[in-house]
Amino acid sequence: MKNSKFTYQKSGVNIKAADKFINFIAKNTGKKKQKNRNIGGFGSISNIPKYFKDPKIVASTDGVGTKIEIANLLNKFDTIGIDLVAMCVNDLIVQGAKPLIFLDYISINKINFQKLKDIVKGINRGCDISNCSLVGGETAEMPGTYSKNKFDIAGFAVGIVDKKNIIKKDNIKKNDLVLAIPSNGVHSNGYSLIRYILQEKKINLKKNKFLRKELIRPTKIYVNEVLKLFKFKLIKSCANITGGGLEDNISRVIPNGLSAKINLSKIKPNKIFKWIKSKNVNEKEMLKTFNCGVGFCLIAKSSNVKQIQKIFKKQFKPYVIGKIIEGKKKVKLDEKVFW
Question: Does residue 5 have a pLDDT over 90?
C-alpha cells in the first residue's frame, strides 16, 4: 500500500500527541476524586451528594480573556488554569451553590505537551482550592485557526444548592451594609487595555519585575470563605466583581426600590491599579474596566460584620464600603475619589 499523500498529521494535527496528553490528564487530576469519573470517554458521570434534600443545578462558563497573552509573553502557564477555575466558580457561589465538577476546553495551534501540562496543573490547583473535581474536557489542535504558539481556554463549572438556600434578592433590606473583599490584583479582566498601555508606552514586561509579578498573579478563589458565610447565615447576598466593575455587578443582586450607595473613598486599591491609573486612565474607565481592589462584595446586617471578618485571613478581610438605601438607581457611586 502506498503512503498517503494527505494525512491528518501532515495537515498539522497530531492524534498520538493528543492521546498522550489525555492519558496524562487521566493520571494526574486533583485531590478530589469522583467514583464515576471517565476522562478520555465520551462524557463524564458524577454523583449528586446525598445530603442535598431538594438539589438544584447551577452552571457557569467563562474564560480568562487576553490574560492568555501575558502568559504567552512570559512563557508561564502554571497559574492561568487557576484563573480559569476562579472565573467560573466565583460566579457559582453568588447563587449559594457549592462547586461540584469542572470541565475545560483548550484549543491550540499545535500540541505542546509541556505547555498543556502546566495549564492543567493550574486547573487542578484551582479545583483543589475550590473543592471540586476536574471530570473531563476537550483539547483541540487547530492549525490555521491559531497562529504559532497561540491558544485559548474556556471553563465550565457545575455547582449544586438546595432550593431553600438559593440566594434571593428579597433578603436584602434597607440599612444592610455592603462589604468589599479585597482582590488579589487585576484578576482576569481588563487585560486588553493593559496590553494596549504596555504597547503604547513601549514597556518591556519581561524586564519589569513589578508588572511581571502583578499581571500573571492568579485570580483569588473565594469559594471556601463565602460558602462558610452562607452556612452560618452571616450574609444575605453577594456579587463577583469582574468585567463591568462595582456598578454593573452589584446592581445584578439589588432588588427594585433599593440602592447600594458605595463610598468610593473607603476602597483600598491595590498598587497595580494605581500604576494603571497613572498611565492616563480616568477614574470612570478604571471603575468600569477593573475591580480596583474589590474582588467580591457581600451584603449583610451590620451586626454580622465582625463575625464575617473572622472567616478571612488578614489579606482578604472584608471591610464596609457602602449601605443599602431606598432609591431607583440600583448602585450609586459617590463623587469622592479613592486614589
Answer: no
